[in-house]
Amino acid sequence: MAITLDDKEILKIADKTMPKYCLCDHCLGRIFAKIDTGLTNKKRGQLIRDGLNKSKKTEVKDCWLCSGLCNEIPHFANLIFESLKDYDYDTFLVGTKVDEDILAREHELFEFTGSDHSESIKTELNREIGKILEKKLKKEVDFEKPTIMAVIDTAFDVVNLQISSLFIYGRYKKFKRGIPQTRWFCKICRGKGCKRCGYTGKLYDSSVEELIAKRFLDEVKGNEESFHGCGREDIDVKMLGNGRPFVLEIKNPIIRKLSLSKLEKDINSKNEDVIEVNSLRFSDKDEVARLKSSEPRKVYRVVFKSKNPINSEKLKKVALSLRDTKIGQFTPSRVAHRRANMVREKHIYYCSIEAIDGSMATLTLETESGTYIKELVSGDDGRTKPNISEMIGTPCEVTELDVIKIKGE
Ligand SMILES: [Zn+2]
Ligand SMILES: [Zn+2]
Q1: Nearest to 325 by CA among 364, 299, 351
Q2: Is 1 part of any domain?
Q3: Domain termination residue (choose one: 121, 142, 163)
Q4: What is the pTM of this model?
Q5: How confident is residue 185, by pLDDT bands cut at 50, 70 and 90?
Q6: Which ligand is nearest to the CA of 63?
Q7: CA-wise closest residue to 229 among 267, 266, 174
Q8: CA of 106 to the centre of ligand 1 (A)
């Protein structure tokens, strides 16, 4: 609905307001902003003032409410334009921080007019600055998920950028034992660096996370990262086969346009025989949640040693009886300090013998997500039942463990 200047209600409100408050056209128009979205507040204010006939124009700088702030819209747009210069982004959103005094005056005005159609000065600034920038940048405002949110503090002419993280999905393989998946901070100094950790702040020199993330951080000029793995393997376990899915989150990236295939090659050639990545693609926050909640089956290669020579007939029977069966695992003693104590039922889908050599044997096991393999072999002092040690009648211990496939991911 267009404003009709004979609209008595609008003119009545304006008529009682203008003598008391000297308002610029922006601020006058804003009292009735929600009546018609086809006009700018400035234009609407001008029409209303014309309709009042007697009211003379108030310059923006003399406005009781904004004291000139509404004149600064192009200036603010420019400040944001400059601060966005170095960044890669598809969409943006403008936010404004407005002086408390102005907001208090606005509150007083809206109370006085009693109009249900008014709009906050912040909304006007955000929208008008956004419109200028859309043209200038040839990029769109996105209210839901902007790549960058630029908040201008109008009292200080300072732009604060909130940059959305860059998410990269991939799968990693780990060919070497002794490398943790993520950074493991020194327990004594908690990452600050101390004598015990050689002032590195870390318990291990490197991690899958660091080997992958460093290259990305350099490339996108980000300042921080988080590594979200789809589960994790123990430090001494290799991750082979199709690799383990992960999402790398890079915070505050400047560059977002990447050649993932080139990065994949770089990372792999630099870390030959240590780690490898594949299937890199761009991802998002939702995928992190998906990975965290997914429970893919895993296939392992397990080498174990028994106290006495292994009776192969017996082990064959054990392997058969472990096919498609359920075991109960009470929280292993080695993780008891970080997991609730309870019995977890886990499905063993498949078990086959690859080799038996004296007191050593190699198995292939396919299990439900979250099965503790070392404990399935050792029995963990009876906490896992049934277990291989008990079934073949001699204590056994895993000597080598590799994840050879992560299924259904
Ligand atoms: Zn004003
Ligand atoms: Zn330390």
Answers
A1: 351
A2: no
A3: 163
A4: 0.85
A5: confident
A6: 1
A7: 174
A8: 10
